[in-house]
Design a protein that fits this description.
The structure is a single chain. With 497 residues, this protein is of the alpha+beta class. It folds into 3 domains: 2-77; 84-191, Beta Barrel (OB fold (Dihydrolipoamide Acetyltransferase, E2P)), CATH 2.40.50; 218-489, no CATH class. Helix content is 59%, strand content 9%. The protein is built from 16 helices and 10 strands. The strands form 2 sheets. Strands 1, 2, 3, 4, 5, 6, 7 and 8 form an 8-stranded mixed beta sheet that branches. Strands 9-10 form a two-stranded antiparallel ribbon. Helix 6 packs across helix 15 (424-451), helix 10 runs antiparallel to helix 11 (296-316) and helix 13 (349-375) packs antiparallel against helix 14 (388-418). The longest helix is centred in the last third of the chain and has 31 residues, at 388-418.
Length: 497
């Protein structure tokens, strides 16, 4: 019950900061006016804190400053695509550096290019269907692409605003490449050195997976471990989407949690305490971040992890109040970190899904689980003497509660962003598929470790079991996707341009 009385100032600050971003989005306010308002409120906050008789006004002034700052940063973050649209038709070739990890599929590759002589970024789509022996493009490559740049367009029948989606990423043009002759390599390895190293390791891990599994199985494992879906057949992606388990193919805190859970099991078996476990997990978290890339959900999970790790370390030594090392505080810190860097992330589906799902889980665990545990007497009175079936029952109830909480929390987001509502089939599908995904992800890690050892029989055994499990996941996703009432899709009238 102590959690009820905890003060969470960072949570309040993040909410008001996000509110300011929303107001900046709804009302096109002047940057100069917002800057003056923010400085004025900041001054009033400082005065109210300095004078004891004005302390009662400090909180309202501080929260108002958060709102004004959020609106100010959002207004400043708007990329001026309008100034480039008038010249875009004149651009017939471009020189730039690949700044994203390219997604390579059997039919096309996708990557983001940073032009050397222009602001913002370009989305490049390299179609392989006319050129099977296509040119391999990697992160950090400096290229000259001889192809026209086109402004992103939105079809009348589409409810998804693709141009706005790209603009939020400062992408103002699309380049389509169909032949190798249109691409000239100028130099390699021009990217950020840590991401360059992460990309090299990513390619090595991909090669090990592809060597030991079939094309379909390796594509699925790459999706589970690294969020790479370009090589996964579209029908399998559709099955996972319609079964309501597409989230397992988008790298998030859940995937990182599964990896850390495996690490915790191994280290606890070796006798490590939780403090040492947190610090030994730090390089694993950073390694995973650089191999996968800076996806919003993974950045959120990483910030939460470090906030809790540092918080528990400081709290154990009495350098900080224990109540500050709180999951909701860490979630608020992650949201603030992302929104300060990119205020427009608030309107991205990935940001909304990631934070809504995590918030739903935390609220269920912090507030609902203690009541369920007390009501049904699931809490063990003597943990050392607790029977195995009661322990498994408690973990099963927690898993069901967490799964339901996450799905209910993201339901409004999926309805708004994708015009889909997942019903009973998706709920049951998650309860069955997600545990198997955890085992498959762990099996993929063991496969990668075994493939680096001179033990071919062990690699063959693990790859056979892993391949079978991946095929079961595909079959289950197709089964739940085909159930009547698994998902309800509805159309939405596209917004006016």
């Amino acid at each position: 019950m102590a959690s009820r009385n905890r003060r969470r100032p960072l949570l309040l600050i993040s909410i008001f900061f996000a509110l300011g971003i929303l107001l900046g989005h709804l009302y096109k306010l002047s940057f100069a006016w917002l800057a003056g308002l923010t400085l004025s409120l900041l001054f009033l906050t400082a005065i109210s804190l300095a004078r004891e008789r004005l302390h009662a006004f400090s909180t309202p002034f501080a929260l108002s400053t958060c709102i004004a700052l959020g609106a100010l940063l959002y207004t400043n973050a708007r990329f001026p695509t309008e100034s480039l649209s008038e010249q875009i038709d004149k651009i017939q070739h471009v020189r730039g550096i690949v700044v994203s990890y390219p997604d390579h599929g059997p039919e096309r590759s996708r990557f983001v290019l940073k032009p050397l002589n222009a602001p913002g970024y370009l989305q490049v789509i390299y179609d392989h269907t006319r050129d099977p022996e296509y040119f391999q493009i990697d992160y950090g490559d400096e290229l000259v692409i001889r192809a026209p740049v086109r402004a992103p367009t939105r079809r009348e029948q589409d409810s998804f605003d693709y141009p706005e989606y790209l603009r939020r990423r400062d992408i103002w043009g699309i380049v389509r490449v169909y032949r190798e002759s249109q691409v000239r390599l100028v130099a390699r390895r021009q990217g950020f050195f840590l991401l360059q190293w992460g990309y090299d390791l990513r390619r090595e891990l991909f090669a090990r997976i592809e060597k030991n599994l079939s094309l379909e199985q390796s594509a699925l494992l790459k999706g589970l471990l690294f969020g790479e879906r370009e090589s996964l057949p579209q029908e399998i992606q559709n099955a996972f989407r319609d079964a309501g388990v597409m989230h397992v193919l988008a790298v998030s805190g859940a995937n990182l949690g599964m990896i850390l859970a495996l690490l915790a099991l191994v280290l606890r078996w070796w006798g490590f305490n939780f403090t040492r476990l947190y610090f030994l997990a730090t390089p694993v978290v950073l390694l995973y971040l650089f191999v996968v890339g800076f996806e919003v959900s993974l950045v959120r999970a990483t910030v939460m992890f470090f906030f809790l790790t540092i918080g528990f370390f400081l709290a154990e030594r009495g350098w900080m109040l224990k109540r500050w090392a709180d999951p909701l505080q860490s979630l608020a810190t992650a949201a603030l970190a992302i929104l300060l860097f990119d205020p427009e992330a608030l309107f991205e589906a990935s940001f909304q899904l990631s934070f809504a799902g995590t918030l739903g889980i935390l609220l269920a665990v912090i507030y609902l689980w203690p009541r369920i545990e007390e009501r049904f007497r699931l809490a063990p009175q003597f943990p050392r003497e607790e029977s195995w079936w009661r322990r498994w029952l408690r973990w099963f109830v927690i898993f069901v509660l967490v799964s339901l909480a996450a799905q209910l929390a993201v339901a409004p987001v999926t309805a708004y962003q994708f015009h889909r509502v997942y019903l009973w089939g998706a709920i049951v599908g998650n309860l069955i598929i997600v545990p198997l995904v955890t085992v498959a992800l762990w099996g993929g890690i063991f496969l990668l470790i075994a493939s680096a050892l001179p033990l071919p029989p062990l690699v063959i055994l693990i790859s056979s079991l892993e391949g079978l499990l991946l095929q079961i996941l595909i079959a289950l996703s197709e089964f739940f996707a085909g159930l009547p009432g698994a998902v309800w899709s509805f159309s939405a009238s596209p917004a006016p341009r």
